[in-house]
Amino acid sequence: MKWKRVAGYGLALWFVPFAVSFFLFAVRENDRALFESLITVVGVASAVTGGVLYFRDAEKSDMKVGLLLGLIWAAISIIVDLPIFLGIFDMSLRNYTVDIALTYLAFPAITMGIAAAKSARPTSLDSY
Predict the structure, then answer these.
(1) What is the pLDDT of residues 29-68, one digit of tens each?
(2) Does residue 123 surpass a pLDDT of 80?
(3) Nearest alpha-carbon partner for 46 in 22, 75, 67, 15
(4) Is the pLDDT reported for residue 22 higher than 70?
(5) What is the dihedral of CA 12, 16, 18, 22, to 10 degrees?
(6) Closest CA to 113 of 75, 77, 63, 71
(7) pTM
(8) Which phi and psi (to 5°) does residue 107 adopt?
(9) CA–CA separation, 107 vs 48, rounded Å?
(10) Euclidean distance between CA atoms 46 and 70, whole angstroms
(11) Contact 66, 116 (CB under 8 A)
(12) Which of 22, 33, 126, 128 has the fewest CB atoms within 10 Å, i.e. is most exposed?
C-alpha cells in the first residue's frame, strides 16, 4: 500500500463532509434528518471518489486490500472526530458511535466493492 496516499485520502474523506457540514449548519438546525442524509451522501461520494482514485494506480486491488483500506480510512475519521465531538461538542461516546462512527463502516464496503470490481475478470457483458 502507498501509505502517504492512504493517509492523504483518509484525511480528505474526513475533511470534505466536515467542511460541507459548516455550510449546511442552518439545515441541521431546521431539519436534522435532511442534514444527516446530505452529509451521508457527501461522505459516501467522497469515499467512492477516493476509492476510485486510489485503486486507479494501485499495485494490488483485491478484497483484502479493499477491506484494509476502508478500515484505515474509517479509523482515521474516527481518530480525528473523537476529540472534536466528545471534547468540543460534548457528545457522549455512545451518541457519537451510533450517530456518526457507524456511518464510517460504509468506507470498507465501498473500497471492497471497488477493489472487487477492478480485479474482476472481463466477461462478454463488458462489451455492451
Answers:
(1) 999 999 999 999 999 999 999 999 999 988 888 899 999 9
(2) no
(3) 15
(4) yes
(5) 150
(6) 63
(7) 0.89
(8) -60, -55
(9) 8
(10) 12
(11) yes
(12) 128
Cα distance between residue 48 and residue 42, in whole Å: 10
Place of cell 473500497: 111
Q: State the Cα–Cα distance between residues 13 and 74, nearest whole angstrom.
A: 9
Grid coordinates given for 61 = 486491488
**Concatenated DSSP letters of 11-76:** HHHHHHHHHHHHHTHHHHHH-HHHHHHHHHHHHHHHHHHHHHHHHHS-S--SHHHHHHHHHHHHHH
Phi and psi dihedrals of 36, rounded to 5? Answer: -60, -40
Residues 6 or more apart from 102 whose CB is under 8 A from it? none
Closest CA to 99 of 48, 36, 38, 20: 36
Task: Check residue 120 and give its pLDDT.
Answer: 76
Q: Is the pLDDT score of 128 beyond 60?
A: no
